[in-house]
C-alpha cells in the first residue's frame, strides 16, 4: 500500500489539508498526518485537526512514498523555518521519493532546497522563491518528483494528481469519477 506523510503546523489551510488527506484515503493510500506542533493543530480558519503523530516521533521515513505540505501563510513560514521539516524534505528527495506542496508551501520546499526548477504556487509567493521559473498558467506543475499547485481552489485537482502519481491512471479515474469531477 502506498504511504504518504502530510505535515501540518499552526495556520495550515484547511481546504487544502482535508482535500489532500480525504482524496488520498479514497484512493486507498495510507496517509499519516503529522505536525510540528501539538497533536491537535489549529488551521488558518480555526478548524482543529488531530494529527496521527508528531513529526519528531516518525522514525520510519523510508516507508513513505511521498511527503505533502498544505499551504496557509503561517503554516508555510512555520514549516520553512523548521530544521526537522527541512531535513525530512531533504531525506525524501535524496531517497528519490515524491515531494509535494500547494499554495504558499512551495516556499518551504525552496527553503529546504528541494524545489525543482519549474513550479507553481499561490500568486505573490513566487517573489519569495524564483519568479523566473514560476509557472503561472498551470494549476498543478510536476517537475521530476516535485509536484506543486496554486491554492485552495486547486486543492482537489492537486490531490487527484497525487493519486495519479502514486496509484496510477485507473485509480485516479475511479476516484475522480466517484467525486463527480468533470472539469479537469
TrEMBL record:
Q: Where is the DJ-1/PfpI domain?
A: 3-164
Q: What start and end residues bound the annotated signal peptide?
A: none
Q: Which Gene3D superfamilies match?
A: 3.40.50.880
| GO CC, any one term | cytoplasm
InterPro entries tied to this protein: Class_I_gatase-like (IPR029062), DJ-1 (IPR006287), DJ-1/PfpI (IPR002818), Prot/Nucl_acid_deglycase (IPR050325)
* Pfam families for the chain: DJ-1_PfpI
Protein's organism? Halarcobacter anaerophilus
Reading the lineage from the top rank, the first entry is Bacteria
The UniProt entry's coiled-coil ranges are none
User: What is the protein name given in its UniProt record?
Assistant: DJ-1 family protein
PANTHER family the UniProt entry points to: PARKINSON DISEASE PROTEIN 7 HOMOLOG, PROTEIN/NUCLEIC ACID DEGLYCASE DJ-1-RELATED
